[in-house]
Design goal:
- The chain is an alpha/beta fold and 215 residues long.
- The chain has one domain: P-loop containing nucleotide triphosphate hydrolases (Rossmann fold).
- 35% of the residues lie in helices and 22% in strands.
- Strands 1-8-7-2-6-3 form a six-stranded parallel β-sheet, with helices on both faces. A two-stranded antiparallel sheet has the order 4-5.
- A hairpin with a 4-residue loop joins strand 4 and strand 5.
- Helix 5 packs across helix 6.
- It is globular and about 50 Å long.
- The relative contact order is 0.25.
């Protein structure tokens, strides 16, 4: 990261072009996409990766490192799932290091979070050794506390997605309802736990290379 974040209104196509510009022959680059819950990180990351194609880009999400629900219950953190201390951050940092250091013959496997079951599935994502660009998306890529502080230095570029709060909250409520919460519980979680996490993420904005508003 060089200097303050650049703020940009752009299209998805512009982001695909920027991601493509990170690709350098013979090297592996890591691109991070962050922002508050409901900002559209997963959607943007998946669409950029799809546009670039599997020979160029792979997608590994931070959410694959959610602690299991049984562990969260034992630790008394189940009702705060999604907060910084409900992830295996050391495991995530270790994966990013492995992705950066992968040899020409090394396949790297990563976990994937499945919303339909509310748990992570180990070794569900395969990153082939020849893939030059790995996208990773998640809430806390720019956090400076604890082991999270090790993430930023492993990423070549980080985009911070912004969207109007009303739109973001509407997306969150809809998502929670889709995966089993009642309308009242969905609104409560979006305005409670999700919003507390959004407040934590907001202060990391300045550490991004690019602050993006999609048009």
């Amino acid at each position: 990261m060089n200097g303050p974040a650049v703020e940009l209104e752009c299209t998805l196509g512009d982001l695909v072009d920027r991601a493509r510009g990170l690709v350098v022959g013979g090297e592996r680059r890591l691109l991070g996409i962050t922002g508050a819950p409901g900002a559209g990180k997963s959607t943007v990351a998946a669409r950029v990766a799809a546009e670039l194609g599997p020979r160029v880009a792979a997608l590994v999400a931070m959410d694959g490192f959610h602690l299991a629900n049984s562990v969260l219950e034992r630790l008394g953190r189940r009702e705060r799932k999604g907060a910084p201390d409900t992830f295996d951050v050391d495991g995530y940092v270790d994966l990013l290091r492995r992705l950066r250091a992968a040899s020409a013959a090394a396949v790297v496997f990563a976990p994937e979070y499945r919303r339909e079951v509310g748990e992570s599935i180990g070794s569900a994502v395969e990153v082939a050794p020849a893939v030059p660009l790995v996208l990773t998306e998640g809430n806390y890529l720019l956090l400076e506390t604890g082991a999270w502080a090790g993430v930023r230095g492993l990423l070549d570029e980080v985009w911070f997605l912004e969207v109007d709060d009303a739109v973001r909250l509407g997306r969150l409520v809809h998502r929670h309802e889709q995966f089993g919460k009642s309308p009242a519980a969905a609104r409560s979680w979006a305005r409670g736990s999700d919003q507390r996490n959004a407040d934590v993420i907001a202060v990391t904005r300045a550490r991004a290379d690019l602050v993006v508003r999609l048009v």
